[in-house]
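thought: fold this chain, then report.
action: predict
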Amino acid sequence: MNPISMDFRKRVISAYDRDPNQTQQALAQRFMISQSTVSRILAKHKRKESLAPGKKSGRPRILSQAELDFLKTALVEKSDMTLSEQAMELEKQRSVKVSVMTICRALKRMTLTRKKRLATIRPEKAKKTKFAEKNSSNG
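observation:
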């Protein structure tokens, strides 16, 4: 979720300053944000702290934008690459070793789908259709 803009935070403060008797819940409903967000903004204002959003929490992404672009380009060139092949190609070309799940999550974030290679399905594993069964018994 994106942080609330500074302009919006200042509007919450100015609305509170105009009428300090109104509740945080009323401010939250007015600006369509949660009461806890209003509470945090007002607390920072009262402590004379900066209203700027804090540092983004969480672990940084393993793949940079350049590596994501590389993956996208590789998939355009060879659309039937498996996830493990994509991981190996990324390691070979960019010296970035990642798991298959990292590749899978990156593709999902980029809203790219992957197609399974039909040539890799073994004939004995493929499901027989009713039509194929009828033709094999008649022949």
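thought: worth noting. The chain has a mean pLDDT of 83.
final: tokens above.
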